[in-house]
Write a structure and sequence with these properties.
single chain; mainly alpha; 11 helices
Length: 256
């Protein structure tokens, strides 16, 4: 019990900080921790991670929305595209030989962290507002198709892909990008968690509760800090969190 609590609490710290700061999926942190240190089956570990993602993303989205750092309309458009093309990507993935892309989201986490440190996102809400509503919707649909397909094909990287697309392609300022990303992740994680539990049955309830509680706590703390921080501070904090998590997950996978 104590080992389970310690592993889940540690996993929740990483997952919660990644979610609250950068809209990162908890699955990227919790899954390898549960598999490596508690010998969980990968399918069960992913289900627990997705369940942890739901409340953590929801509370983060609420915090960002409360501070007016959330684009609900375009977030819903992008979410619909992501969900549809995740299925398309999954179908295509079944038709091609299995590729060794398991560390895709981990490398993306590390590289994106370095990117935020070296080249911070300094877009303002004023410059975001200069883009027409029609153009923004079209961009959201196309970007959602791309993110969804890659997530379905590779099986990971949703949160990081969305953050990269929202900041680099759609030109969102960082807080609004993270807020919109966690808003979308709330629903995609819920869909994934329900599917995993429906197919694989209920997981270890102790590990589930510990992971959900720890992730929720740290996501709330990170989101509150992020919304009060300046753009420069948030870029650096997000970059450091992502870089450290990426390196740590790579190390955990190496141990495994």
């Amino acid at each position: 019990m104590l080992i389970t609590f310690l592993v889940c609490f540690a996993a929740g710290i990483g997952a919660g900080l990644g979610t609250g700061f950068a809209g990162m999926s908890a699955a990227a942190v919790i899954s390898p921790m549960l598999i490596t240190f508690l010998n969980f089956e990968p399918y069960t570990a992913v289900g627990i991670a997705l369940a942890s993602d739901v409340l953590a993303s929801a509370v983060s989205a609420y915090t960002y929305g409360k501070n007016k750092n959330l684009d609900v309309r375009n977030g819903l458009v992008m979410m619909a595209s992501v969900l549809c093309f995740t299925m398309v990507g999954s179908l295509v993935a079944k038709m091609v030989p299995s590729a060794t892309m398991g560390n895709f989201s981990v490398f993306m986490t590390l590289l994106l962290g370095i990117k935020f440190i070296v080249k911070p996102v300094m877009t303002t809400k004023e410059s975001m507002g200069a883009v027409s509503a029609k153009k923004r919707i079209v961009q959201s649909v196309i970007s959602g198709m791309l993110v969804g397909f890659i997530c379905g094909f590779v099986g990971a990287g949703g949160g990081m892909m969305m953050l990269l697309v929202l900041t680099s392609v759609l030109g969102y300022e960082l807080k609004t990008a993270v807020g919109t990303s966690v808003f979308i992740m709330t629903f995609t994680a819920l869909t994934g968690a329900v599917s995993h539990f429906a197919i694989g049955g209920m997981p270890d309830l102790t590990a589930l509760l510990f992971c959900v509680g720890s992730t929720l706590l740290w996501a709330r703390i990170a989101a509150k800090f992020a919304n009060k921080a300046s753009a420069v501070t948030l870029n650096r904090a997000t970059g450091v969190v992502l870089a450290v998590l990426g390196a740590a997950i790579l190390a955990v996978n190496y141990v495994k």
